[in-house]
Amino acid sequence: MSNEHPDSFKSRKILQVGAESYVYFSLKDAEQNGLPGISSLPFSLKVLLENLLRNEDGRTVTKQDIIAVKDWLVSRGKDEREIAYRPARVLMQDFTGVPAVVDLAAMRDAMVNLGGDPKRINPLVPVDLVIDHSVIVNFFGNAQAFGKNVDEEYKQNQERYRFLKWGQSAFDNFRVVPPGTGICHQVNLEYLAQTVWTKTENGETVAYPDTCVGTDSHTTMVNGLGVLGWGVGGIEAEAAMLGQPVSMLIPEVIGFKLTGKLNEGITATDLVLTVTQMLRKKGVVGKFVEFFGPGLEHLSLADRATIGNMAPEYGATCGFFPVDGETIAYLDETGRKAERIALVEAYSKAQGMWREPGLADPVFTDVLELDISSVLPSLAGPKRPQDRVLLSDAKAGFLTSLEGEFKKPGEADKRVAVTGTDYTVGHGDVTIAAITSCTNTSNPSVLIAAGLLARNAVAKGLKSKPWVKTSLAPGSQVVEEYLASADLQKDLDALGFNLVGFGCTTCIGNSGPLPEDISVAINQGDLVAAAVLSGNRNFEGRVNPDVKANYLASPPLVVAYALAGSLQIDLTTEPLGTGSNGQPVYLKDIWPSNQEIATFIRENVTKKMFQAKYADVFKGDANWQKIAVPQGETYAWDGQSTYVQNPPYFVGMEREPEAVTDILGARVMGLFLDSITTDHISPAGSIKEASPAGSYLRDHQVRPADFNQYGTRRGNHEVMMRGTFANIRIKNQMLGGKEGGFTKHWPDGTEMPIYDAAMKYKAEGVPLVVFAGKEYGTGSSRDWAAKGTKLLGIRAVVAQSFERIHRSNLVGMGIVPLVFEEGTSWQTLGLKGDETVTIKGIAGDLKPRQMLDAEITFADGTRKVVPLLCRIDTLDELDYFKNGGILQFVLRKLVA
């Protein structure tokens, strides 16, 4: 280590493992040398504490910061102490990765313009980008589906892939996992993550906990492997890549005690939906959740990863599982090197980071408890992951939603004929049944269960209903291997669950179009069609534009609903269909036993499979290998490209930042209710021909068939800013709850698309603000939700509360997040959207979490002064804000 390390608690030591010796920062020594009691901290906080001990420099990390973690034992995280955290590495997927690499390329150009060396713009920590978000289920239900979807993906994404290959050669510390390998979380869990990380520094090998931030909110999946990781916006990830610490508050840690074990016929998905509902009810936004208790003995690592994955759905920063014997077994089963496995065990034990039965429980801020044996078969829907419904209540729950939420009273029996077929479709008919990536394809137990259920259904003569779009998109190539080895893929194929691709599909809106005749029938009849998917997100408008009711379920239940074909069938009491012998077949007749599932896993999921599939993980298929790569330190931008453009963030930028100004006479762009997700704000899903983004693409000679989707065009700000706030289901209350991205331009009150109004206001020199309710910005860590907001000219967002990642992303783009006092909302103030808003106190000596006043002038001239809390939370965030954003701050630092 460098001589500048103060090592205030004399924690620097050598760990000998076999023939290797490692430098490490010992929590046990630090406890003896001035940090009494830290051995009883939660395991997740021990990871943060080690991070501070190792990075102590007297400036970004001080002795007082380290003491503050010890003092957590008294404050339990209630004192809101800020620390600078440095993750070991960064994980990206391509939707968020492309714009991050675009920004790095743009920073290289800006560096040249400011007279600096472009090579100074480089990731300083290892970055892995996994291309997993671009495959769309255009083809399904046959043996050719996989090949055709891959061909289509490469055809649509040549420009993006060429750009990423340039990045791979131009930047140091940056690797790309090619398309068709699996989803980033699965590749992270099975291959990239090491649980204990090492690096060479001044000729010595330093060992420390593997930690990561990822540009996908489900980065938390790796928490199941004892790796502290969570989702950040692309903006924060770029800063971490460029050596900036992640500014964070020492969190509250909620302990979640698990006892007992799963009963016969209950899946890990049922467990995670139960956990999600409990933690959402508890309220854990901005907090760590850590799992403990004797129930961990009965959870496989895949089960733990399933629970860790859904931390964004329960709202927590992470859902952490400490390292124990199960971790070591998994590292071995997935083919990690023997020396690394030995280091993980020795290091974890030396640091007091090893969990085993009989040890005292850590100290937590608060504790929840669940007896796992009480978990029952469950789904979640029709719109939110936390809205769990028992399988036995799913039919009644749907009918209640049909009457209430979807406002279709008395229509339960409505049917519409599907042209060219002999069948009809109705409310609650399952038009999509997708075994899709993320939560569940980490887990052999539920995938083998789906395969066995398919085998049993086929043996009885059952078929999927003809109106169901079926698909299987595993998170890893290993899944394909073990389903084939177990001879179960043929049975899944027989029910239409053919492999469609390796990647995030239905869960992120890449479900592809429904067959046209079915789509027409749904829209003609204004039907509430349903999707059942084994993913983790079911927000409205996300899965498919034709499908309004979306339910999360385990893979075997996805197969069961494809057989039944409707949410209006109670799978616990009504038959799935009629067997080939003319007798009714019930779910209980074909559900496999836990014992059979375990036997199939033991016999078919092998270490050899993991070693073979990951032996050459960065090579890619023939399609990837033949993409030609441009050379050069700076990127040769193609002005005609509709995928990748040089963004305008650094236009006219000087070495010194301009002073920030107050917001004077702003107009209201939107009035929104609670739970506006980043899906509502950020461009996602398909691009409509009639939208501003569609017009832009048509003007650039792109045929509607080649529009692709917003996610693939995240490298082009012109498309993305046109799609911001353009979600088909968003409701701006200025227009009385009309769906879609519209607003009114004042003072004339003309209704128009939000993008058009924003450009008109920009031409008039008028700043904009947005008002919203609670939990603004929940959902995926979409950086474009903040970038698009910035490019539309919105200076501030005023809400009742913010989700963690989106709040920090707004600050990272130079936008002020403001929070009403308790009991105040835009509704209590009587806002209609035709008011003007002035917010003073931003210019000058702004402090973190300062109270500011907004002066609202109503159309009749009356005025109200409203106190607002400025949610720029830390001094680092204030620096970013005053520089116009985090990228500008980093660039100025590197130039200096």
UniProtKB/TrEMBL annotation:
Its cofactor is [4Fe-4S] cluster. One of its GO terms (molecular function) is 2-methylisocitrate dehydratase activity. The gene is acnA. Keywords: 4Fe-4S, Iron, Iron-sulfur, Lyase, Metal-binding, RNA-binding, Tricarboxylic acid cycle. It is an enzyme of class 4 (lyase). It comes from the Bacteria. Its EC number is 4.2.1.3. It catalyses: citrate = D-threo-isocitrate; (2S,3R)-3-hydroxybutane-1,2,3-tricarboxylate = 2-methyl-cis-aconitate + H2O. The keyword Transferase does not apply. Pathway: Carbohydrate metabolism; tricarboxylic acid cycle; isocitrate from oxaloacetate: step 2/2; Organic acid metabolism; propanoate degradation. Catalyzes the isomerization of citrate to isocitrate via cis-aconitate. Involved in the catabolism of short chain fatty acids (SCFA) via the tricarboxylic acid (TCA)(acetyl degradation route) and probably the 2-methylcitrate cycle I (propionate degradation route). Catalyzes the reversible isomerization of citrate to isocitrate via cis-aconitate. Could catalyze the hydration of 2-methyl-cis-aconitate to yield (2R,3S)-2-methylisocitrate. The apo form of AcnA functions as a RNA-binding regulatory protein. Residues 696-822 form the Aconitase A/isopropylmalate dehydratase small subunit swivel domain. One of its GO terms (biological process) is tricarboxylic acid cycle. CDD domains: AcnA_IRP, AcnA_IRP_Swivel. The keyword Kinase does not apply. InterPro entries: AcnA_IRP_Swivel, Acnase/IPM_dHydase_lsu_aba_1/3, Acoase/IPM_deHydtase_lsu_aba, Aconitase/3IPM_dehydase_swvl, Aconitase/IRP2, Aconitase_4Fe-4S_BS, Aconitase_4Fe-4S_dom, AconitaseA/IPMdHydase_ssu_swvl. Belongs to the aconitase/IPM isomerase family. Monomer. PROSITE patterns: ACONITASE_1, ACONITASE_2. PANTHER family: ACONITASE/IRON-RESPONSIVE ELEMENT FAMILY MEMBER (PTHR11670). Residues 78-565 form the Aconitase/3-isopropylmalate dehydratase large subunit alpha/beta/alpha domain. This is Aconitate hydratase.
